[in-house]
Structures are given as C-alpha cells and as structure tokens.
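User: Structure tokens for both sequences below?

Assistant:
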Amino acid sequence: MSAPIQAFDPLTVPIAGTNLIEASAGTGKTYGIAALFTRLIVLEQKNVERVLVVTFTKAATAELKTRLRARLDDVLQVLESKEIAKLGDDTLSDGIAAYCAEHHKGDTFLPALLKQALQKEGRTRLIVRLKAAIGQFDNAAIYTIHGFCQRILRDYAFLCQAPFDVELTEEDGDRLLVPAQDFWRERVSNDPVLAALAFKRKAVPQTVLAQIRAYLSRPYLNFRRPQTDLPQARDAALASWQNICGNLAELKETFWRIHPLLNGNSYRKNSFAELFDALEQKALSPDLPFLEAKLHERLLKLASDKLEAGLKKGKTPDAAVFAELQKLADFRRDLDALEEAEEATIIRLQLDLIGYLNRSLAEMKKSRRERGFDDLLLDVHTALTDNPHAETLARAVAENWETALIDEFQDTDPLQYEIFQKIFIAQNRPLFLVGDPKQAIYSFRGADIYAYLQAAEDARHRYTLATNYRSHAALIGSIGALFRLKERPFVLENIGYSEVGAARAESRLSPKRPAVQVRWLHENDNEKANKDVLRRRAADYCADEIAHALNEAAGGRLNFKGCPLQSGDIAVLVRTHNEAVMVSAALKKRQVQSVLLSRESVFASPEAAALSALIGFWLEPRRAGTLRFVLTSSIFGYNAQQLHDFNQNESEILHWAESARTALDNWNQYGIFAAMQQFSQTHGIETRLLSRNNGRSLTNYFQLLELLAAEDAQNRNPAALHKWLRDQISLAGNNGGDNRAIRLESDEDLVKIVTMHASKGLQYPLVYCPFAWDAQDTGPSDWQILHQSANRTELLAKAQLSEDEQKQYADEEMAERLRLLYVALTRAEEQLNIYAAYSSDTADNPLAYLIEGLPQDSRETVRRAYACEKDGIAMLKRNWQRVADNAPAGTDFAFTEDAPPPAAYRGNAGQTAEFAANSIPERRFRFVRHTSFTALSRHTQTPDGGEEDACPSLDAAETSVPAMPSETPTASDGISIHDFPKGTQAGLCLHEILEDFKFGQAAAGQETLIADKLKKYGFEEIWLPAVAEMAEACRKTPLTGAYCLSDIPPECRCPEMGFTLHTEDFGLKRLRDWFARDDIRLPEVCRAAAETLDFHTVNGFLNGFIDMVCQDPDGNICVIDYKSNHLGADASAYTQQAMDEAVAHHHYYLQALIYAVAAARYFKLRGQPPAAVSVRYLFLRGLDGKGGGVWRWDIDAAALEQIK
C-alpha cells in the first residue's frame, strides 16, 4: 500500500528514507529542488560534493546548476548585507525577515531557513561555510543520468570491472550494423527457406535493425518466442495448391454447376469468375500463388458450411459437391497457416537478432574503451546486479553521496530505477524522487511510467507541491474542471489529477479574456468535412485569431502586464512537423512572423533528404530520376512548369551531369565541404534557401554540411559517407546528440510554433492548440512494450497481441495522449485556446474521452458511445456545450461556434522600410576552375551584340515533345527512324541503346536489348524495327577509310570515355584565330559561329564524356559522338550543308575540338601519339550505312598541340 500524500515543505521534510515528490505543472518543481538543496548545504551542513542531483538532459542540468548556485548566492547576499551585518544576535532573526520582505518579496523559505540555521551556528561561521560551498560549486555533483553513470564507472572502475578512461561517444549505427550483417550471413543467407522469406518480406539487416534497435540493451524486457514450423506449413500449403492445380477444371465446373442454387448476392457471378480466372492464371506456375485479399475471402466462401448457408430457400445441399469445393477453402486455411508461420518466423528472427546484438555489444565492450550513452547505464546496472563486487560497489557509491535528489523522475525506466534502488534505497540513504506522472510523455525514448508507479508504491513518504505559480486561478480551475470530469482522467488507475491552488488570483491580460476558449470548427451541424479540410480551417482560424490579437495590441486595446501584447508572448502547440508548417504558412499569409521551436534531429528535415539525393546524383549522374527529385526538393524548389521545361532540354540535363562529375572530382580532391560550397555557388543554392522559410532551410543546410564534413574527416569515401547520411536519416528519431538537434534562430519577438513534446517545461502568456481535436490514431507499431503483472514487462510484436492485450495497448496509448494533452494545456499563463471538431476517430481523441459520458466511464465505454451515435458532430457539440454551461465556480470557460473574422497583422504598417539587395552586375571576366563544353557553349552573343539567355533553348528539332500515345503508329510497316519521337527522352534512349550495343553483332540479334531500352524510356515496341535499322546503319557506316564500327574489336573501343583536361589561357581570341586557319579545315559557317562565343578565359579544368573513342586496325584514332537532332523528314535532309549548320548552331565544333584534344592526350600519354584525330558526329536519324548522316572533321595532331 502506498504512503499517504502530504504537502511538501522543503524546510520540514525529513532527510531520511525514500521520498516521492509529485510536482504538477507550474508548481515550482525547480524552485523546490533548489530550496531542498539549499537546506542540505545551509541547515544540514552537507558538502556540495556529497549531495547528488540527477536530471535527464544536459539543458536541465545546466539550468539546475545555475538555479542552485543562485540560491546559495541569495543566502550569502542576505548574510553579508550591510543591514544585517550591523544587527546583534537578539535582533538578527527579525532583521532578516524584514530584509527578505523588502528584497525577496514573497519568499518565505529564505528567512525561515536562516532563522533555523543561525540557531545552530553563528553568522560568521555560516558565511565562511557558504563561501567555501560556493567556491567548490564547480565540483558539485549535478549530472545527467548518463553523466552520473559515467562518474561511477570512472571512479569505481575496479569494482565495476570496467576499463579505465572510458571514452564516451555518440551512438553509431555502423557499430550495430556490422554484427547485424554477421547475424544475417550466419542465420539467413545460408538457409534457403529463411532467405526466401526475407526476400518476400523485403527484410534486410538495415530495415530489421531499424525496427528493433530501440529495444536493445534493455535487460528488463521479456520475450514471448512464438513456436512454429515454417517448412511444415509451407509443405502443407504447397501440397494443397498442387491438389487444386490438378483438379482445377473439375472444381470450376462443379462450382458453376451448383451456382444457380446459391444466393446471387453472396455468390456474384462476376466475382467468382474473377476468382477462377486468377486461379487458372496462377496454376501456370508451380509456386504458391499470391492472391489479393478479396480473392482470399471468396475462397473462404467455398467452405461447406458457408455454401450451405448460402443456398437459396428450398434448395437441398449436395454434401459430396460441397466436400469437393471444401478443398478450395482448405487451401485458403493452409495459406493462412503459412502466413502465420511466416510471421512467427520473422518475429523469432528479430528476437534472435536482439539477443545476438546484445551479446555482440557485450563482447565489443570487453575489447573497446568506447561507450555509447546507453552502454553507460547498462554497465552500471550490470555492475550492481551481476558482479561479485556489487554489494561493495553499492556501499562505496552510497558513502560518497550522502543524499540524492532525482529530477524528472517520471521519465525513468526499470534499469535506472534499479540502479537508484541498489545504491540508495538498499543502503538506506536519503533519496528524493521528483517528478509528475501526468507529464510522462517520453515512452518513445524508453521512459516507462510503470517504473515510476512502482517507485511510488515503494516510497516511504509521498509529497505534492500544492501551489501553481504559472497560471491565474480561473485558468487553473478551468483546466482542472476538464480533467475532473473523469474518475480516471489519465486512464491508468494510479494516476489522478492533483488539485492545486493558485498563487495569483487575476489574469494579467487587459482587458480580460476567457481563461479557456473552445472554438468550434464546423461551419454547420450537417457538415461532413474531412480531416484535411478541418486541419486547414484550424490553422486559418488560429492565424486569424492571432493576427486579430496582435492588431488589438498594436492599437493599445490588448495589454499584458501593462504593456501591449507582443508576438513573442504567443505560442501555438502542435504535434507534428506538418501541422507546424500549416500554421506557419497561415500566419505568413497574415503577415505574422513565426519560428518553429523543435528538438527534432536535423536529419529528419527536408534538407537532409534533399542533400542525400543530391549526393546520390553525384555518385550516379546518369540517374535522371534522382536529379528530378533533387530539383523539386527543398533545395531547388522547381515547380511543375520548370520541371517540364527541364525535361525537354537535353543540353541542360547533360550540363547537370557534368556538374555532378565535377563535384565528385572536387570531393575526392578537397573533401565534401569544398565540393558542396563550389556546387552551391555555381547553382545558387544559398540564395534559393535564404528566400524561403525564414532562413530555416539555410540553417539546416549548413548544419548538415558541418556534420558531413566531420564524418568526411574520418576518411570515409563518397559512397560510404552517402550510406552514413542515409542511415542517419532513417534513424533520425533516435539521434539525440546536441549537434544533431535543429538549430534555432532568434525567437524572442516571433510567434512560437512548438511541438507539444518540446513545450514541456516552458510557459507562454497565450497558448493556442489548433489540432487538439485530432486523434491522429496510427494503431500499434510493429513492436509494443506492455506491462504485465508481477513487475513483468514484455516486448511483443503486433501480431502477437491477444484481444485483451490490444485493449491494453489502446488504453496505454490513450493514457499517454492524455498526459501529452495535459502538458499542452498547462503551458498557458493567461489564456488557453482550444479548437474542437468531429472526425472519424474522435472516439480515440483524449479531449473527447474527458468530456463524454459519466465520470466512471472507461475509454472502451466512450468508444462504444461514439460507435452507437449516428450524429457524431451533434454529440461532440452537445458535450462541449454541457462542459461550458456546467462549468463550476472559479472557472472561466467559453465555447463559441462563430468563425473568427479574417485578419491580417497591421502592427508594423508604415513603420518598417522595405529593403532589397542591390543587383550585382555580372563580371565579364572571372576565374573558372572547372567547366565543360556545355557551360562554355551556353554563353554566346546575338548578332546585335546582346547576350543570349545563359540557358538557351535547343532548336525546334530537339525540343519537340515525345509523341503522345495517339501519335504512336499502330503498325510498324512504313515507319522509319525519322518518325521516331523527338525530345530529351528520345535522345537519352538512343544514346543508351548505342552505349550497350555490341557493334560486332547484327542488330537483328540484339532486339531484346533494344526493346528493353525502349520500354525503359516509355516507347512502344512498335518502334523496334526502325531503331534496329538505325543501329545496324550505325555499325555499318564507314568512319576512317573503309573501316566501320563493326570492323573494330571491342578492346579497341572505349564507350563513354570520361576526361578532365588541364587548360592554360583557354581564351576566345586565341581560339577564334585557331579556328580561322586554313589548315584547320573548319567549315565557314562554323568559323562564323565561333565569333559569337562569349565565355571567359579558362585557367583550370575542362570536364566531359565522349560517346566513343576507338582505334581502327590501321591505328587511326576516331572520336565518335551520337547526335539525335531532327533535321528533316527523311535522309535527304541530312546534307553536308545541313549538318554544318547544325554543328555551327549548337557549337558542336567546339565540343569536337575539346574531345579531339582529350583523345590525342590520352593516346600520347600511353606512348601512341596519333598523327591526326578523326572526329565523326553521327546524326542518327540520317545514317544510311554508306556514309550519309556523318559530319567529318580530321585534325592534325600538330595543330591540336597548340591548344593549351
């Protein structure tokens, strides 16, 4: 039986035994801890190093250190004040009381403490002790739970049997992935049945590890291992299926023979025709079939009892026929049994992996001095429970710390509580456990409310903080009235609503507003709005109300503490990132600036996903789909029209691919940070990010770059670093390092959008909860921790939950939602605004639970009430009106159905000037370190001297959209490559076909390759003959002398040859002079085109990829590039003049020169300097296999040597 609850007084509470202090929201928990700590130092004369204070986060630790030190400073300041120094012993007590009344108003603890302390020792000696304590305060034992365990492992390494000088590191997913992969190789890869099952379930070490990693290093968890025989279940199902296949025709005939006797509604003809068609199709394969759920259900209807129940009235059952069709229903049951066996096998596999990883981690710790945060707790727990020196260790630690104060104890777990039990409770040391079970909201981090409740049962004394210092009386009473509507407001039996008084009677808002306002979201009683509509409306209503309040304040009509209400006085509480974005957008529409406060990992941000995709594109530049994702991500933000224009611009795609290859080169040479910085400058990433989301995206981007650079310094190669980033994104929910938490901009003067979890411990004058009505029911996750009787905690898979356990899960889920709701509602100092609406899952909403039915009604009773109610909207509305109408005395509760008037914030109108950055004119000459032909050719001058768009469109032949389905020919007769669709996709398709094409083999033998490529790019197979004819012409076209590609062996061909050329003073004047020379033999139209080039002198590197470089049997070097340009309707359009003009228009001659220089240098470096380089541009649509459609340019090697 638990101890009775008493009011907590830090001055009189006995310093002995185990004490549980329940501190409801706003009751001054930190003040109480500071007062108790001060008493221990001042009155009980403890040393600051001998009083242990433990909390659960670094931020809370820092706050406690500041508050505890400040409290000691307050005591010393009183004792050393001039007014007190001149008093005698007989007037000292009264003088201190008067001094504190003047300088520490409302603080009754301080004078009472000093009165008792000065009765035990003189003022001078007390001052000396206080100065000593403050001087030693840097050594005060104030730790996080992990810091406390690290201190034990360090100071008592021998007794703990732990290595000395353990290094604390952040959790590393790779540390777990390696043994997980070992387990997979041992257990799965070598077992064909398990391997097939893993493949079917898409289970790989990474995904399974992500599911179970949260349950590692928890020795208090018990497992329920399912018993199963997968091979037997599979054999039974396979035998049943083979029996069906052998008799399917007879079974089908039998069913249709009796079908007229069956009820037409239950046995619809079309439905069972679909079933038998599917079975006949599946019977073509010997493997077990996969059937849709609806077909599974129809199989079950063929059971004898179902058939008998489905007979029309007056029809006689045929037992023999029904028994025959029962085989189909039995097959369904065999499939169900197999599914259950597979599920059980996967569960056992995951449980085995948990055990394997726990053992692997234990072995790794024996050989390493590194520890993660969870390792620290586990090591100390092991040292205190499974260690020959356990008792000696517990006594030694207890002797070192005479008294312990544990803050935020509601967030404990069985592991932590047992540590405190062994050290303090078993050793009879004073232990104070401070927390609030109503605010236990971190089960997803491993906190266990049942560990707290067990501690409450074990505690010798229980206390409560009885006064709320945050909110005024009417607000406290109104929130309390909601929770008092239920006898078990938090579902669980041992958690009730604690009554608290108010330190402040009146609101500090002027004029006063309702303490709690509930606004109805439905526009009329018959509205059946879906959740998306209601969510948008809630965000809009909330934004309108905030804008209106700020307008009132700007006009002097709404004040807080005598001054106009400010944006920073308002908070909007949400549960999810999507809700936060919705509210932020709604506020922005109304000219209200806001900031998102989050403890979310930066790896969970959209910028992390975008960066991962961008790096993936760098590693595989040919993946156009990845590039499209990057362009539409939060980094570039392309809209649909921009993406469409991009898809039609082949040169732009090639430019991005070359840019990716340049970035990867920079990464390999200079590191990820330098590569990303240069890429960012080239593509204007920082400018794009800064223009959106109040700079949040830019902050996230730079934070991610810093984290990537830190990992890159560990000598990870690009692929490994990309994998690391993907792992961090997938595990973002578990990354709690400070450097991973999203960094926040200054938020003092902005409306704060805060997640409910992050709001714990914070307070705001005005609080809005626009989505409190939304249940957001996700159902059980893959694994659940359920508290069983006799202090047994079990880890159960979703499939293992019995009906009673599913109800228990639902109760515990609702209990946690109610605790989160309590946290959200108790953040307000002056006014709380709640929004109410009915949705399909309202029965699972915590507010609906509180206000529905009788006080004794359970969660299940509330659910049944909503299930039986035809008009849920009216029911919920009645409940809210009843709450408002029957609100008890001392509350201030308002329910309104009116929509707030639309508003836009006008507070700064006419006061703030608009600023815009000056445009910086483009510099005509700049240093270029890396560039390409695509980049150079994009800068040209028009005839009138103006500069063209830096991203020019291709000519009409290349930008035509691909043929729509209606334009695709219905027969292949008479169509040719000239009819093949135009555009980017067509060009990429033809290039990829030729890249993989075997030129030594006739096209007729490679039709499968061509068909696969056509299908990949969305083209009908009807184009196959035309494309095959083009490929055949390509392999037979003479290139150098009499040789064609079919004559050149594969070892003398290099497709997709990449290059990086170092250039010096690669400028326009020298280049134009070179092109104009007679011995260069460049067509006149190309020489004229060279005069329009307008790029800057290049001193650096030229990058690119050549479609093919080859060497014929005579040793001649040939550079080949495929061009899919459409110059006309037939081969006659591909004249030499037409090809010259196309080459000139697109500056392909410059590309040809760069490629020729690259090829010449390549062969020269390998000891085979060519006499000349033959450039052959194959216009694919104009090839005839005899030389037509080929643009030729032969360049002497001596001339190429002059290009630097």
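Moving on to the next sequence.
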Amino acid sequence: MVGLASAAGLVGFLSEPDHELKVFALKSLDSQIDLLWTEVVNAVPQIEALYEDESFSERGLAALVAAKVYYHLQEYNESMVFALGAGKLFKLDNGGEFEETIIAKCVDTFISLSAAQRPAAGDQPANLNTAYPTSGEGATSTSASQTSPITPFSQSALPSKSLLSRQEVPGVDAAYPGGEDASVKQPETPLVLKRGVQGQLQAVIERLFEQCYRQKRYRQVIGIAVEAKSLDVLRRTIERAGEDEKKQHGEPRRSEELLEYVLDVCMTIVPERGFRNEILKLILGLLNEIPAPDYFSIAKCVVYLNEYSMASVILRQLVEKGDPRSLAVAYQISFDLYDNSTQEFLLKVRGEISELVPKSDEGDAEKQTEGEQNEPKESDPLLEGQSSSTQPKSQEATDGTELSGEARTAFKNILDILDGMKSIQLDLEFLYRNNKADIAILDKVRDSLEARNSIFHTAVTLSNAFMHAGTTHDKFFRDNLEWLGKAVNWSKFTATAALGVIHRGNLTQGQKLLQPYLPREHIAGVGGSGSVYSQGGSLYAFGLIYANHGGLAVDLIRDHFKKATEEVVQHGGALGLGVAGMATGDEGIYDDLRNVLYTDSALNGEAVGLAMGLVMLGTGNMRALEDMIQYAHDTQHEKIVRGLAVGMALIMYGRQEAADELINGLLGDPDSTLRYGGIMTIALAYCGSGSNKAVRKLLHVAVSDVNDDVRRVAVLSLGFILFRKYQSVPRMVELLSESYNPHVRYGAAMALGISCAGTGLDEAIDLLEPMLKDSTDFVRQGALISMAMVLVQQNEAMNPRVSSLRKSMMKMVGDRHEDAMAKFGCAVALGIIDAGGRNCSISLQTQTGNLNMPGIVGAAVFIQYWYWFPLTHFLSLSFAPTALIGVDQKLEVPFFKFHSNTRPSLFDYPPEQQVKPEEAPEKVKTAVLSTTAQAKRRAQRREKQQRRESMDVDQAPSTPKVSEQPEKMETDEGAAKAEEEGKEAEKEGQKKKVEREKVGYELDNMSRVLPAQLKYLTFPDPRYEPVKRPTGGVVVVLDKDPEEPRETIELKASNEARQQAATGESLQDRLQSAIGGAALETPERGGPEPGAAEGATAAAGVLTAVDEDEDGEDAPVPEEFEYQTDVDGEEE
C-alpha cells in the first residue's frame, strides 16, 4: 500500500456507523501507525470505545492499534494492557521493536505479580527467633531504633526491621527489570488487575515459554522463574527438558547440566535465604528422581540445607551397592563434606554412620589397621571423643542386618575422612614435600628490622609463620636463636603462637611439639614456672594446629584455660579454644568463656568475647547474643566491647535476613565500637552473597558515619560481600581509594585484597600501586598487604608486575627512612605472597564453590590486627593448598602422572630471590682542576713531539701514571660493555628458550596445581580415572586394575615425625632441658637437616625463659640509669 500523507480520512471513518468502514480504517491505521501515530493520538478514545464494545467483531484489532499508539507515547503500561487485549493478533514472532518492548514489559509484570504473591514470611527461618533483645533498662535496641546517627538518606526515620535504607517490597526492588523507581512501578500491578487481563498475560507468558522450549532455550525460562520466585515454572522447565531429550533419544547429560546451572544460579544469584532453601529442596527432589543421580550436586544441596541425615543415607546407599565406583564416589563425597561442612554437621553425620559399625568391630578394625595406616595413636582418641559426644542412645545395628567385612572397612574409612584426618594428613604431606620458601628473603627482612623493637620482631615472626604455614619447617627459629631471644612479653606470645601456624595440621605431633611451652604446673614431675607469655602463646598455637578440628585438643585447651589464673594464659587459651572449637556450638565451652568474661578484665576480655563468637559461629544463638549485648553495655572496657562486637558478628555468620534485627540495633547504638560490630555483622551475615541491600548500606555508612573506625570497616567489608563478583570491586571502590580520609583509603585497599585475593586482577593492582606511595603510613601498610594478597602464587608469566613488586618490597623493608607501620606491612606482605612455601592461595570459597567458613572467619579476624597484632595469625586459616592429590579406593596415594596442556613456565614457581652481597663503599674520585688537566695534556703533547723527533723508543716514560690511567679506564669500560653484552645475549637466549618451550608437560600426583590450571589437565593414565571433574584438593581416582601391582607415594611427613619420636629423648628429658636452658644444645645433635620438631624444641629454651621485667609492659621505670641492668633482686 502506498504511504498515506494524512490520517484524517481514516480517523473520520472511525465515527461512521458502517461496520466495514471502521474495520477498514483500523486495518489501514495498523499498517501505517508508525508514520501516522501523531494524528491518531486524538482518536484514541474512539479506538478504546471500539475495543470495549462487545458487539464489535474486531475488538482485538482496535486493541492492537491502541497499543501501538500508547507505545509511541511511551506509555508502556497502557500499551501492554491493550496488546494483551489484542489476543492472537499480537504476534510474538515478528521481532520488531514494538513486540520486543511489550514482551519485556509482560515478563516484568509477570515477575512482579508472581513475586508479590509469594509470602514474605518464607524468607525467615521458622526455627530462629530474630527479635532483638532488650535489657531491663531499655538501653539496647529500644533507644537504637529511635535514634540513629546514620539514618538513611531515602527516609526520615530508620525502618524497624530492615537492613535496607528503604522497605523491601516484592516486585518493586531495583533488582527487577524496570523496578528502579517505586513511584512508577507501583501503579503497574493495579492497572493489570483492574483491566482483567491476567489471563491474557499468563497466555502470553506461556506462549513465550513454549517458544523457548522449542528452541531449547531452557535457561531463559529458568531465569524468569527464579526472578518471579515461581517454583512451579522451575520444576516444569526441568522436567520438560528431560522429556524432550527422551523423545529425541538424546544424552541425559544435557538435563544434568541444566540442574547444575540451576544449582549454580541458586547458590550465587538468589539473594534470599528462605527462597534459596526452597529451590534447593526442589533440586534435591528432582535429583533423587533421576535413575543415576548426580551425588555431588546432592551433597552440595545437603550441606547447605543442613540435612545431615540425608548425607548419611547417601553414603550408606553408595557403600551398600558394593561396586568399586560407588565406593569411590562415597569417599569423594566424604572428602567434599569435610571441606564444606561445619564441625557440628560432621559430628552428626559421623554419629549416624557409627551406628552401622558395632563397637567391637570398630575396635578390631583399629587394631588391625593400626600398623598399616600412617595415623599415630594420638589421633585415635580424637575420633573416639568426637563420635561419643554425638552417639545416639541406641547402639543397636540398624535394620538388624549384618554388614560384610568390606562394608565395615568402607564405613571405617568414611569415618576417618569425615573426621578430617585424611584430608589434613594429605595436605600436610603436600606442603611438606613441595616447600619452596625462600629463606634468603626472611634473612634479609630479619637483618633489615631491629629486633629490639617489638613491632619489628613481631613482623619478622609473622612473615616466617605465613611463609612456612603448614609446612612443619621451623628451621628459621632454630638458626636464629639469638634473634628469637630478643622477644619479650607479647612478642614472645606471638612468636610461640607462630609455631601453631607453621605446624598447622600436624595432628600427630602437635601436643609433643608444644609440651615444653604449655603451662607447666599441670605436668607431673616438672617444677618451676616459665614465661606466662609463652604459655599463653602455646595454647593459642595448640588451637591453630587443630583449627576447625577440635576433638581432644579442645578438651586439653579447655582444661588449661579453666585452671589458669594468669590473664595472659587465659587470653591465649580463649583464642585457642575459639579456633579449635570453631562452629561446634558447645554450650559448655561457651559457659566457661562467659565466666571468665564476667571477671571484667580488659586483657583477656577481648579474646574471650571473640572466642564466644567463634564457638557459636553461624548458630544465631539468641541466648549468647542476649548475654553479649547486655555485657557490652555494662562494661567500661573498650577492648571487651570490641571483642564482643566481633563475636556477635561471628554468631550471625551466613544468616543473611535473620541478622537484620541485630544489625539495625548495633548500627543505631551511640557507641562507635558497637556500630563497628554492626558493620562486621553485615560483612559476615551476607558474605559472598553480593547482596545489593548490604552493599547499599555499607556505602552509605562509609560516607556518613562520624567515626573513622566505622567508616574504614564499612569500606573494607565490601570485599566480604563481593568476593564472588570480585571484578566489580575495583570500579566500586575507585573513588573511595582517592578519599581525603586515610581510613577510607585503607579500607578500599583492604577490600581489594580480600575480594581479589589470588586472582592477580589488573584493575585491582592499578588502584593499589599509587597507594604504595601514599602520604599516610598505615595506608601504605594496607596497600602492601593487599597487593600481596592479590598477587599470591602469581609468577611473572601470569602477571609481569609481580617481580617489580617483590623488588619494591625488599627495597622498602631495608629503607631506614621508611615508617615503622609501612615496614611492618611490608614484612607481613612478603610472608603472604609466599604463603605455605609458595603452595597456598588465599581462598574464601572452596573448590566446589561453597563458602569456605574457616577462610572467611580467618580473614575477618585477621583485619582486627589493627588493634591487636597476635590476631594476624588468623589469616593462616584462609590459606588453601593448591594441590591435586589423587587417592584410590584404599585411600592410598598411587604414583601416576597427569598431563597439563600448557607451557611449564606459565604456572611455575616464582624464581628464588637473588640476594646480592653488600658491596664495600667505593672511594670518592679525587677532583681534578681544569688547569691541571690542561697541563697534563700539554705535557703529553710535548712528549709525543719529542718521540717523533728523536725516533727513539722511550723505555721509561717520564709520566707513567698519567699515560697508564686512561688506558686502564678504557679497559674497565670495555670489560663492562662486554659484560653487559653478555647479559643481553643471555637474556635473548632465555627469550628464545621460552619461545621454543614445548607446550604440554607431565605432572606427578600430589603436585601443585593452580585453580586456573585445572581446565588444562587431563588424565592420560588408563588405569586411574577420577570419579568427578577435578576441582583441586583431594580427588578419588578409580583403579581399573586393582589386582595389578602398583607403586604408592610414601607419606614422608608422618614417617619423619614418627622417627623423631622414636629416636629423640623422652618427653621428661626434653621438658627438663627446656627449663634448664639445655634445649639450646639440641640443634647440634640434629645434624644439618633438622626435623620438623627440632626448631620448636630448640626455641623452647628461649621462649619459655622468664623475662627480666616480670611485670611486663607495666613495670615501673627505674629512677636512675644505672639501675636498668641491676634486675637480679627485682625479678620476684
């Protein structure tokens, strides 16, 4: 049809009584509406009247024309309503802008309506009372809810029960498309309901879904279903995908991939905890209906839902199948459960599984395997003690069936795995074998920092601890006893605790290593009293060795803690109890800690408050919260309030919406320390969620609170919320990193370090590099630590800037003009960047994508080093060995190789630091006057002229020194040039060598494999096949020829520990020698290659010695200078 110049005639036809003329006008306008809509606008009422006239046969056509006019007027709500009224005339397949816009609006409306119909009560856990506790005087949340120094800018008063700066309304949240403006969004729902087009809307959505089904675009439907919170659509889509595959005889792998996608979306995108649980239950039900379910996805759901009974049922079913693959899958699930679960969850699973193995059979199995397995007897009570605490009253075998010998062995192995012994032993062996720590760097740091200064001594101690974390290599202490002897008071406490970081996971020898340091009044036959600082540090170290493992260690530390009278020992005991008993929820331990808290001692109160939170980690225990918030308002000690504030945040770990009530109460408190705790509660309750409302609150507090500490931690906490979306953090904190306030700049630096740890993200490094030259010392400190966290395990091939950073840090630590705070950060950074002998990364999530609870807690407590240096050791909990360890069905480590399809240099260890010997200062050249130089040149010219005239060779030049000097200088310059050319040629040769480097190489089992390297790995050995796609850590491989002979890897770490225990002196002798100072002789007996325990034993005589000023830092200053060395009579 030829385009019309005007629509006046067609509009006039709409008023005619003839029915055909009206239909003709509508059809003509529909085809030309994009050109004529401006003239048709005034006729919209007539068109609407035709649509509402039920006697008019072309009502749908009238609705379509009206929809297009409203579309051009940008009245999209009205346009959508009339498009829905058009029925089938509105074609989804046209693909024009009008159709796409209306479809998007329909989807948004469907999401809003569906989400609004979902009850909000489902978001709150039914078994948790989140009411904020109030005191008898009303001094807690009552006043907090009325007055707040950080009232959100969007409201005049703080909402009573919301973390948001505005009330959360389903369907109006900005996260939904088109929902940014609540004033625009709210009228949309009543309009759809008023016009009565819900049925048409549902029909359009169904047509859209059906179109996606035909085109195999199931993921788009799943995305809409998740946003709309429609579990029915989600279930229907997954089931439809399976049916379509059956009709086409396709592989079931596609439906399994779809379930994996739904699980990934649920765990990483869905913000609400309650809805996420419902989706997980749905996935769990669908997985169980599959004939060959994905047990690893089931295990992930089970852990998150805390369904420990289902976990034990799955393991039992797999073992009872009896085939080798099912047994290998059961072992792999057990390893995954240990990596992703809390101690409380594992105890319950082990308690149910232990019912399947009668006690007599358990004892026989232990006796038979005692000599075969590499676990010493010390670990056996750990297993027994833990299982006994959760054993149900009924000890009868389930179902009355008799288990076969293979099943009993399998259940015994599963109990060992769930106990953590296997994983810890394998990680310890890996770190011991592959330790690549560069001692030269430590020596340089030690020589550059004055040990008499406690901050510098602590810095070297921390650098050594991080660099050798988990390796059991404490040789640095043995070789530097004189330096170690300069530690006094809290420096001695930190140095002793460092042994726990170095020997973390050394469960077989942990107690023996620390025996000389433990409080000696509890050791039979040994008198005397050592330094209380080394005693407290030893309890802290003991907890670090058994971190998140508990068992017998908790009982031992608890016994020392209850009997201790010294505040320093109580301080270390509380920290050790918290680390070892993490997330156990043990009420007895909590009561012991609370009793010490009520003594109102500032010295131990901070550690006790922190330990209370660690023990109740993630439980949301309201009794504990009521006690802690009440005492925080009663005490006058700021250190106690800070410890309790962080402890309350730990109790709400991962609770999300359930923590909102506590968050509002803490953020509204006049005490800045409690507001600090409120920010920490946001960080831990919403860690890894990427929650928009949490980020919005943190950014608001970061620019509005009056206290620098609160603002600093608010910016820093962004790293905890967004570490799963770390690419967005640099853009978010870019402006904050340039703030006028140094505390905000420090927080921005640490947020980058926490969120981007181990990624080597260039955008993060670009922001951190200028901060290394910041004018404020603690900002430089934070930038150095964060830079090390970002670049941990990065080599020059992965990130070219890592080598220049290492050189800058080595230069900074030796600069005498650098501030002490920056030097401290530099030393700690050098330890972090080489963490665990260059075999550990900093990870806040596990290899399977779940939250790494010890890692997150370790990072959260680590940042408290701002107030208390010994808490820096907590960062070691975030260290995750980057290993690939294959074990077979016998839980032994077979010798086989796997292939990495990359260049060897891409993921290789960084080269060792080349420490140049200090050169003697060069002599300053003598100044030569210009007149002297001219006289020498004239004398040379005269001499040459005389030679020509006489034609005689002058054997002895009259000025030999003048004539030889320039020749010598030319020779030196030539040699220097030749040397430079040689170096350049060598570099060119190295470049050519890199270019010629072969792609693809073999790696032995139990080798370092970085997370980025996993996608390049293959298993060419036909005998060993992994039961799941390798994600790092322990991988169970299926031995296809179990009867054939095989070679296994000997676990050296455990064997060496046993040999030392067998060949060394008795425990009594070691204690006596340590007390008497004879322990300093032990290094010479150990030979050139000291074992893991000898460094700790050698250091015992130094660290356990009582300091001269027994009163510590509070000792009175002598009146006269001569008295400072006369301390013999003052020790008592």
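User: Anything stand out in the second?

Assistant: The chain has a mean pLDDT of 76.
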